[in-house]
Amino acid sequence: MASDRRIPTPAADTAHGAETRAVRHLSGDPVMAELIATLPPPKPGTSAGLYIDLIDAIASQQLSVRAAASIMDRFLDLFPDRRPTPEEVLERSDEELRAVGLSRPKVRYIRGIAEAISSGEFDLERLHDLPDDEVIEHLTALKGVGRWTAEMLLIFSLRRPDVFSLGDLGLRNAVARHYGVDRDDHEAIRAISERWSPHRSTASRYLWASLANTPVSDSR
Fold it and tell me: Up-side HSE of residue 211: CA atoms within 13 Å toward CB?
């Protein structure tokens, strides 16, 4: 009888191997080892593609997860296949975009990004080929995109393995709780996070999971 055991695809096998290496490395830190032993493996999250993820990140700024998800759902409903191109976004009026719950500044940011991509001024797909620091530099040149937003795209959209966001309040809260440091002591938290390199993205997922948390910028 033929076995029904699934044979992993090369991509899945590579991802599994990378996660195994990350867990092995992180387990050298006793605190992280305890989190790994007690928490289920965090899922990497889903990506709708760089452009939609970027709009989602803008729409989500300074909002609760539930409120942001509701706004993004209504935004996507404006488009027949719920996967708008920059050109399709530009065809919508400010009033239509405001009606889904977007603030006036966020409408300006989303429209500005769409214009930059549509005109060729900004090549979003080029980000795949750039190192992390250059991705951050390019993204933060866009109006409305801060370092935290760029770092979230690195982790969740580009799947970069070694990203830790000091601007994420949830991550700092988790480090403060588990390592006994002040959440506003950026240098102490940075030093702790460097122990996890080159697997800081996996460490971040465990830290978020430890607080049943999601990424939240502390930007005001």
Answer: 18
The CA–CA distances, whole Å, from 9 to 2, 6, 16 equal 18, 9, 10
74-80 CB contacts, 8 Å cutoff, 24+ apart: 74/100, 74/101, 75/100, 75/102, 76/52
- In the numeric block, the tokens 């009026």 are attached to 93
Using 50, 70 and 90 to split pLDDT, how confident is the model at 71? very high
Would residue 168 show up in a list of annotated catalytic residues for this protein?
yes
Please pick, among 56, 168, 184, 218, the residue that the annotation labels catalytic. Answer: 168
* Predicted TM-score of the model (pTM): 0.85
Phi, psi of 218 (to 5 degrees): -95, 15
Mean pLDDT of the chain: 90
What are the helix (H) ranges across 119-213? Answer: 132-139, 147-152, 169-179, 186-194, 200-210
Structural domains of the chain in order of their starting residue, each with its CATH number: 50-157 (1.10.340.30), 161-220 (1.10.1670.40)
CA dihedral 60→61→63→69, nearest 10 degrees, is 0
